[in-house]
Structure to design on (252 residues):
């Protein structure tokens, strides 16, 4: 059903969580994969070894996506080692270092959270645009969050604002990139049990299960499929869209 043979896919934040599951799924369907983490080289190399075991090429890049020079260097490394790029999946992100009411949030925490979740997406698309254009079939999938619709958890306004920005940026970028044949979409997860959370989400947020029509908290694999679809030829006429995968929380 899905054929990514000939595609080179960079999945940011793929050392763990949604990015990890996504990188594996792309490889299972024929893609060569660039694995990324921040100070997570051991985990990234382990994933790359699994991908190579499938007969695919894999490259590990490790760097800070809030640093323009680092992002440009990673893009250059991808072009030199892999020969180009046809799919960019922006999974990297994270919540604020501490939860607090908005009136108590420092400038430093606000800016760091925005940069980690929105600024990173801006930098990677800029650094990879030429490669995506040259591929003749460029695709970008940004991972946002349903918090931008729900307002998120109290104390996480900076994260919620950043993810809302990702959705808005996705739509704007889709317009700008359409003339170059590059599609841009977003996948918006609900509550997912992954290393994004410092503790087991199924325990900490068990009270939320009653609000999820499908009756369970999501897994990273639950998001990998929608991301794969948005990057596939089955979505060739889809751009500027946000696909929510939240177990049905939109209808609650």
């Amino acid at each position: 059903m899905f054929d990514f043979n000939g595609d080179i896919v960079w999945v940011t934040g793929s050392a763990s969580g949604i990015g990890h599951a996504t990188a594996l799924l792309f490889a299972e369907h024929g893609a060569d994969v660039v694995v990324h983490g921040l100070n997570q080289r051991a985990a990234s190399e382990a994933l790359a070894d699994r991908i190579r075991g499938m007969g695919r090429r894999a490259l590990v890049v490790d760097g800070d996506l809030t640093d323009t020079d680092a992002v440009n260097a990673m893009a250059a490394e991808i072009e030199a080692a892999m020969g180009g790029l046809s799919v960019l999946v922006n999974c990297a992100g994270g919540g604020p270092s501490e939860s607090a009411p908005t009136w108590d949030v420092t400038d430093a925490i606000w800016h760091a959270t925005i940069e980690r979740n929105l600024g990173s997406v801006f930098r990677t698309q800029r650094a990879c645009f030429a490669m995506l254009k040259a591929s003749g079939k460029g695709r970008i999938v940004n991972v946002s969050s349903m918090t931008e619709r729900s307002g998120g958890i109290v104390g996480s306004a900076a994260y919620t604002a950043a993810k809302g920005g990702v959705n808005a940026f996705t739509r704007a970028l889709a317009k700008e990139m359409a003339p170059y044949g590059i599609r841009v979409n977003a996948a918006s997860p609900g509550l997912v049990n992954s290393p994004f959370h410092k503790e087991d989400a199924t325990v900490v947020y068990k009270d939320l299960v009653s609000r999820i029509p499908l009756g369970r908290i999501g897994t990273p694999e639950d998001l990998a499929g929608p991301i794969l679809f948005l990057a596939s030829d089955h979505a060739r006429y889809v751009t500027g869209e946000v696909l929510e995968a939240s177990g049905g929380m939109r209808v609650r």
